[in-house]
Request: fold
Amino acid sequence: MIAKTTEGLAVVCRQISKEFGSGETKTVALRGVDLDVFPGQMTLLVGQSGCGKTTLISIIAGLLNATSGSLSVLGEDIIGMSGTRLVQFRQKNIGFVFQQYNLLPTLTAIENAAVPLIIAGKSRRQAFEAAKAILSSVGLASRMHLLPNQLSGGQQQRVAIARALVHEPRLLVCDEPTAALDAQSGQTVMELLRRVALQPDRAVIVVTHDNRVFSFGDRIVHMDDGVVTNVEVPDRTTQPDSKVVLASHT
Reply:
């Protein structure tokens, strides 16, 4: 059970563990993780590759099942959800940004961004209107009819972010969104996440080992060997949010 004192939090993990395989081949990825994620904040999960960051966000996003522990996402018990209900909950409430973009190569930017709404049963017109609006907000108004291979890495990541936000989720989860980008494009993507994705009623979780982007976090959760080792709460009053003009070439 999740304690009542945690009401209002976007995500509450208590003693989350995850094991893969069994016997001599068993691998323990998470070893009793406790984590609170607040709405209206960007939480960074940081640590070396293999420390369990991606496994943890995959469980939070409902893509993996935990071996043990309790998990509340937006007030709902994710671990106790049936398969169909979990899929519906994820479609409505969670956006996921993948490290390698995962764009469909034969679809244009606007078609890629519209996919979640079409899957959810929206009409093609409704889906494309929403996709056009979100692509414009991320600076891709002039690139929305191009295929992924006609876009730069930074532009493809913006399409991936637009696709994750098009259904207006209350939780956005990003797996190493700057890993495949140069320093300038990575900064632009993080500024974009704070400007466009972060809202008072939406929580944003970003997995990263890129210390160049640590300044964007409201909370920095350090992980090592499957556990949370430290949580930093930077003083953002001395780090005003950047105002970025999104150029189509980035």
